[in-house]
Amino acid sequence: MNDPLIPPDRAALPDFQDGQFFAFKDDVIFTPLVQEGCIVWMNGRHPFSSGAFILATAVSDEAEADATQLLKNEFLLRPYLSDAWAVKPAACTQYRGRYALVYPSFAFDSLARITGQPMVCMASFLELAIRICAPLRQMHRHNLIHGDIKPGNIFIQGDTSCRLAGFGLTTGTAEELKQTRLPFFGGTLAYMSPEHTSRTQRSVDSRSDLYSLGIVFYELLTGSLPFDLSEGGLAEWAHHHIASEPRPPHLLREQIPAMLSTLVLRLLAKSPDNRYQTVDGLVADLRRCQATLTDDNDIMPFPPGLQDRAPEFHLAETLYTPHPQSRELVAAFDKVNQSGTHTLAVISGPSGIGKSSLIASALKELKNRRTLLAVGKVDQFSSSLPYGVLTSAFRALTLKLLGLPAEDVVLWKTRLARTLDGYEGLAINLVPELGLLLERKSRQAPDSLSTDARARFNLMIVSLVNTFATPGCPLVLLIDDIHWIDVASLQVLEYLLKNSDALPLLLVVALRDPSSTDNLSMSEALGRLRDAAQRKIDIIPAPLSVKAVARWLADVFQRRSTGTLDLARLIHEKTGGNPLFVHEFFKRIVDDGLVTHNKYQGKWYYDVPTIQARHYTENVVGLVLQQLEKMPAETRKLLGSLACLGSSGELGTISRVLNLSDTDIRYQLHPAVIAQLITLSADTYTFPHDRVQEAAFALLDAGERGHLHLTTASLLAEASRQAAGNEMLFRAIHHVSAAIDCVQPPQQRKMFRELSMLAARRAKRSGDYLSAQRYLQTARALGGPASDNASDFALELEEAECAFLLGNLVAARHLSDRLLASPGGLAEKISAANLLAEVHMRQSDNPLALETALSWLTVSGITLNRYPDDAECEAAWKMLHARIGENPAAIFNQLPLMASPETEAAMSLLARAGLSASFISPRLHFMLLCQMLHLTLEHGITGASTSAMGWFGVLIGHRYDEYRLGFKYAVLARELVTRHGYSVYEAKTLLPLDQLSVWTQPLSYTTECAKACFTAAVTHGDLTVASFAACHQIINFLSRGDHLDNVLISIERGLAFVRKSHFPDVERIMLIQRHYVEHLRGYRQEPGAAWMRCLTRCCRPRRNRRRSKCPP
Question: Coiled-coil regions in this chain (predicted)?
Answer without folding.
Answer: none
